[in-house]
Amino acid sequence: MAFTDKVELKDFGKMDEEYQHLLKRVLAIQSDCEIGGPHLYVKDILLNAPTPTEKLIVARTAAEEIDHFRKMAKLAAELGVDVSYVLQWSNQQRYVEAFRGQITTWEDYAIFGFLIDRVGRYQLEEFVGCSYTPLDKALPIILKEEEGHVAHGRDTTAALAQDTEESRKRIQESLNRWYPQALDMFGNSESRRSERFVYWGIKRRTNGQARQDYIAEVNPMIAEMGLEVPDPTTGRHYF
Q1: What's the predicted TM-score (pTM) here?
Q2: 132 φ, ψ to 5°?
Q3: What would the CATH number be for the domain defined by 13-224?
Q4: To the nearest 5 percent, what fractions of the chain are helix, strand and coil?
Q5: What is the pLDDT of residues 83-109, one digit of tens each?
Q6: Residue 18 three-state SS
Q7: CA-CA distance, 100 to 172, in Å (whole number)?
Q8: How far apart are CA 102 and CA 177, in angstroms?
Q9: Please, which residues have CB within 8 angstroms of residue 46's CB and are 6 or more apart in sequence?
Q10: Residue 1 confidence (pLDDT)
Q11: Mind listing the pLDDT tens digit for each residue in 66-90?
Q12: Alpha-carbon distance 90 to 217, whole Å?
């Protein structure tokens, strides 16, 4: 039977070694993803956003993501895991491939918010009601802010898709690049580790289940914007 108890910090050391390992691992990866976003776009996008209001939104988004890192890093530190090393990592060292490049165009920034931040929301939602109580309690504010990031990405993508023909072409090209990376972020559908996360009550869905839910949500939105849904098998590494 799956694990259904709630675990407080004081009880963590009494837990099965597998539980301890999985929780430490996921907090390290989540910390890296939270700080990875600002490392992708702040350098080239912050001062080059098209309007003063957009510059403010980019700055606020980066600040919120850095605060999300701070909160995840604190949770990890309470378990004896120091994740400060990810602050010094180059983008190419990130745990997740989607964070290993550089965002240099407004179109890529928009799609990143629309697709990649949405995956980030999915990953955080996995922990809602999870067995580790301190993580569950940290989520409401983080998720509310992530919803704002996703909404801005969605709205900006839709506006660019409805602008000029050249604008639509550029946003479609960005969509084609980022879509397979978004699907890959869920990992391997046959991952045994994914099943163990669910068993221990740390996550609610397996990788494959979460990815299918994501596709069902995002594909109709892409079509509604008048954009083409990319081939879900092209450029993929994990299925």
Answers
A1: 0.95
A2: -95, 105
A3: 1.20.1260.10
A4: 70, 0, 30
A5: 999 999 999 999 999 999 999 999 999
A6: helix
A7: 21
A8: 13
A9: 55, 58, 59, 62
A10: 82
A11: 999 999 999 999 999 999 999 999 9
A12: 32
